[in-house]
Write a structure and sequence with these properties.
heterotrimer, A mainly alpha (259), B mainly alpha (277), C alpha+beta (347), A: 259 residues, mainly alpha, MetI-like fold, B: 277 residues, 12 helices, globular
Chain lengths: 259, 277, 347
């Protein structure tokens, strides 16, 4: 009984985790091509990252886009989740729910292309705006899920209690619901940030010049060279996202979000 | 009069609250779909031209093939793992949940790059095979369909594992004991008890995998190369390389339709299946 | 004038299913009325209509003569104790209790005064600076009650307040609630599905079924003289049978399954007959002054101080709750009853 368990776990975990560890190992290798096992030890590739403007700029671009997109997505998610949670017998509820799940079903690359067309033809110019809109659409369902979960945990009675004591709905919501979903807020924002930062396909057609997000910059680099610079950058990225996910875990308990 | 306004406001309020987000989705998600179709001159004939085309069909078949293979591999790995982990101690469960969730936090670009390191000519796998003297020359794994499938498997495995794990956790130990006491062997237990009870979770995972494989871009393009194009890679090519935006629109529609129909089929398939019982 | 009046209340959750079907209710000043019924009968919905969270599609709600049917919930002066207590987790006990007072901009001194008084009345002294998560279930409930009472509400609504309380303490808590209610003379509507609960606390009990009140009467009356078979069944009258024939004359009786049961009063509109298990006696021989039915004991269930016997008789299955413990399964016995205890119901 034990042995098959160990076998399957080992196999699965190695499939899952090796690709993440590899860049880390290679990033210290001396050789200019990707060879395994890595030879020698050098930090030169980490230094090389900073030789490329597009990486630094890309990091800033990705962060700003992620930040803005998360902010907008949470702002939109809050009333939407609230409606879905409180008004379970609404007439158009099915329709509304489907509309909100739609972004998750839509393939990122298709969305990227469609927004490109829409922005270019209808609005006349591609700008950071369409890129951010794309990210908001990709990220919004995640934000909604987290906020909906915190609303569920809180329950609807509290708001009714405040209303019965004399507060109108809006102020009751601010007095009594908002303070208690702070966790969901922060967790949702961090989740949105992470998803946006890691999103690649959506930025494929919508990025340009200065607003090129980091993953796109990396993709471009990979088309010319294969040296371990990317490995070093990947290692840094992994560290960054792992740190972020611990932050999420702390505020919201990500693992418990796993359904 | 004031009373009526108040009551009307109350009834409309939920719609008013949902409105901004709804409008956002409608304007930037739904409208562009129609816009794309309307904008392409002669949409219908372009569509037909693009689709009724040897190249397109082979790419489409490849995409389906890849999706199905990944789904199968994921099933074979996820079911036993979910079964065992579902019946382990909370500490172990939490460990596995974290381990499986962790890769999701990492950029797919980075993960694909990791696979390149593993599967490359001088990568991990080849070094191991050469070291064990199994092969004389490095085996070409990268830029094949298999490499793509491995990458996609790693990408989507958590989405199969997590719902299955939930379903396994909800399946009580006592049900299994009852079946065993009545004489059911392992195969029967799987077919008659485990499968039906975990079906919902399995279908969720399945739909994510199939839809995901149809739509994925980064992983297939880095690991499969242009000789093994999938639908999304074809889309990219139409836009950035061939500058054939009409064909791109057609491809985009096909991708969307595939993803949507997979979802619909699976969701309603389960409902019908459950009713039939 | 009645303090609280509900007239012809219809509430629909979806087009085809009315939850309340023309409900009427009148409550006097200072009264505690219990809404008793099975889940789904509409008692919580009725509460929400009174509170203002639901506006009925048809009907009126009047409080002290004012029509409040369309007034929003936050403008009605109503105190609610929720089943889940719904305490504000981020506020201390004191802040919870004074929340309603702060909204009403009550002056500081008066606010502290009222809060202290109500906290004292409910035994919450010393807990004012704690957070709800640091309180026991019973303490939380008292805070919820204090918060609702602090605003000096016109009406107090309580939704299954004892369901989360350990059965051992229920009677005690119930008595406390009653004491506070009496002292403050506040009109209270108390929702419960537990018959014992309702009978123990209410001035009048309203038994609800499928969106309507079938009967509203003081506890003794509703327990002894239910008017319909539903109410009778709810009050524990297990032996309910449809009547075949009503016979008048010197010795009026009703016939059930060809067995004639003596009754005290004649009611030609009677449709069902009901016998309460605890009003029946089980005996080896017929008793003088009592009517009897022959039967055989098919089952026996121990209830602590009493035993429940199931007997197969010509009427059908009869249950008897008796303190006589000596009978065994398979014994032949007589079920004895007084005609005055045979209840004839019209519905």
């Amino acid at each position: 009984m034990r042995i098959p368990f160990y076998a399957v776990s080992l196999l699965t975990l190695s499939i899952l985790l090796t690709p993440i560890i590899m860049p880390l190992l290679i990033s210290f290798s001396v050789s200019e091509t990707i060879t395994f096992p890595p030879q020698g030890f050098t930090l030169r590739w980490f230094g090389n990252i900073f030789n490329y403007e597009s990486f630094a700029k890309g990091f800033i671009a990705s962060s700003s886009i992620a930040f803005t997109a998360s902010f907008l997505a949470i702002a939109l998610s809050l009333p939407a989740s609230y409606v879905l949670y409180r008004h379970k017998t609404l007439r158009l509820k099915g329709l509304i729910e489907s509309l909100f799940t739609l972004p998750m079903l839509m393939p990122e690359i298709v969305l990227s292309y469609m927004l490109l067309l829409f922005a270019y033809r209808a609005m006349g110019v591609i700008s950071a705006l369409s890129l951010i809109i794309g990210h908001v659409l990709v990220v919004m369902p995640f934000g909604m899920r987290v906020i909906y979960a915190s609303l569920s945990n809180l329950g609807g009675d509290i708001e009714d209690a405040a209303v019965s004591l004399g507060r109108d709905r809006l102020r009751a919501f601010m007095d009594v619901v908002l303070p208690n979903i702070k966790q969901g807020f922060v967790g949702g924002s961090l989740t949105c940030f992470m998803v946006s930062f890691n999103a690649v396909s959506i930025s494929l057609f919508l990025s340009f010049g200065d607003s090129m997000p980091l993953p796109i910059a990396m993709l471009n680099y990979l088309q010319i060279r294969y040296d371990p610079t990317i490995a070093a950058l990947s290692a840094l990225l992994v560290a960054f996202t792992v740190a972020l996910s611990f932050a999420v875990e702390r505020t919201v308990g990500l693992v418990s979000q796993v359904r | 009069m004031g009373r009526y306004l108040e009551e009307a406001y109350r009834n409309l309020r939920p719609y008013l609250l949902a409105a901004p987000s709804l409008f956002f989705v409608i304007i930037f998600l739904i409208a562009p779909i129609f816009y794309m179709m309307a904008y392409t001159p002669d949409f219908v004939s372009t569509f037909v031209q693009t689709v009724y085309n040897q190249e397109f069909v082979s790419v489409y078949l490849r995409t389906i093939r890849v999706g199905a293979t990944v789904a199968m591999l994921a099933t074979v790995l996820a079911y036993p793992l979910a079964y065992y982990v579902g019946r382990s101690s909370p500490v172990l469960k939490s460990f596995f949940k974290t381990m499986v969730f962790l890769p999701l936090m990492v950029n797919p670009l980075v993960r694909s790059y990791g696979w390149i390191i593993i599967l490359g000519r001088e990568g991990l796998l080849n070094s191991m095979l050469a070291g064990l003297q199994v092969v004389a020359e490095p085996v070409r794994i990268l830029y094949t369909e298999w490499a793509m499938e491995l990458g996609l498997l790693e990408l989507f495995f958590p989405f199969m594992f997590i719902p299955l794990l939930s379903a396994m956790e909800n399946m009580s130990e006592e049900v299994l004991m009852a079946a065993r006491s009545l004489g059911a062997g392992p195969l029967r237990i799987f077919m008659n008890i485990i499968l039906p009870l975990t079906l919902k979770g399995y279908v969720v995972g399945l739909s994510v995998i199939l839809a995901g494989c149809a739509a994925a871009f980064v992983t297939p393009s880095l690991l499969g190369g242009f000789r093994n194009r999938t639908l999304s890679m074809l889309l990219y090519e139409y836009i950035d390389v061939r500058l054939n935006w009409g064909a791109a629109a057609a491809t985009a529609i096909i991708i969307m339709l595939t993803v949507f129909s997979v979802n619909l089929l699976l969701t309603y398939g389960v409902k019908i299946g459950v009713k039939a019982k | 004038m009645k303090y609280l009046q509900l007239k012809g209340i219809w509430v629909y959750y979806s087009k085809q299913e009315p939850v309340l079907k023309g409900l009427d209710l009148e409550v006097d000043k200072g009264e505690l009325v219990a809404l008793l019924g099975p889940s789904g009968c509409g008692k919580t919905t009725t509460l929400r209509v009174i509170a203002g969270f639901i506006i009925p599609q048809r009907g009126n709600v009047t409080i002290e003569g004012r029509d409040v049917t369309k007034t929003s919930a936050h403008k009605r002066n109503i105190g609610i104790v929720f089943q889940s207590y719904a305490l504000f987790p981020h506020m201390t006990v004191r802040l919870n209790i004074t929340y309603g007072l702060r909204i009403r901009n009550i002056e500081r001194g008066e606010m502290e005064n009222r809060a202290n008084k109500i906290a004292d009345m409910l035994g919450l002294q010393g807990l004012e600076d704690r957070y709800p998560s640091q309180l026991s279930g019973g303490q939380q409930q008292r805070v919820a009650l204090a918060r609702a009472l602090a605003i000096q509400p016109d009406i107090l609504l309580m939704d299954e307040p004892l369901s989360n309380i350990d059965p051992k303490f229920r009677e005690k808590v119930r008595a406390e609630i009653k004491k506070v209610q009496r002292e403050l003379e506040v009109v209270t509507i108390y929702v419960t599905h537990d018959q014992e609960d309702a009978l123990g606390i209410a001035d009048r009990v309203a038994v609800m079924n499928k969106g309507l009140i079938e009967q509203i009467s003081p506890p003794t009356e509703i327990y002894e003289r239910p008017k319909t078979s539903f109410v009778a069944d709810f009050m524990g009258f297990e032996n309910i049978f449809p009547i075949q024939l009503v016979t008048g004359g010197e010795q009026p009786s009703v016939t059930v399954r060809n067995v004639a049961l003596r009754v005290e009063e004649l009611d030609r509109d009677g449709k069902y007959v009901a016998l309460h298990p605890s009003k029946l006696m089980i005996s080896t021989e017929p008793k003088p002054n009592l009517e009897e039915i022959k039967g055989k004991i098919t089952d026996k269930s121990f209830k602590g101080d009493r035993v429940k016997y199931f007997l197969e008789t010509a009427l059908g299955e009869l249950t008897v709750l008796s303190s006589a413990k000596q009978f065994s399964i398979g014994d032949d016995a007589y079920v004895c009853y007084a005609p005055g205890d045979v209840l004839v119901l019209r519905g």
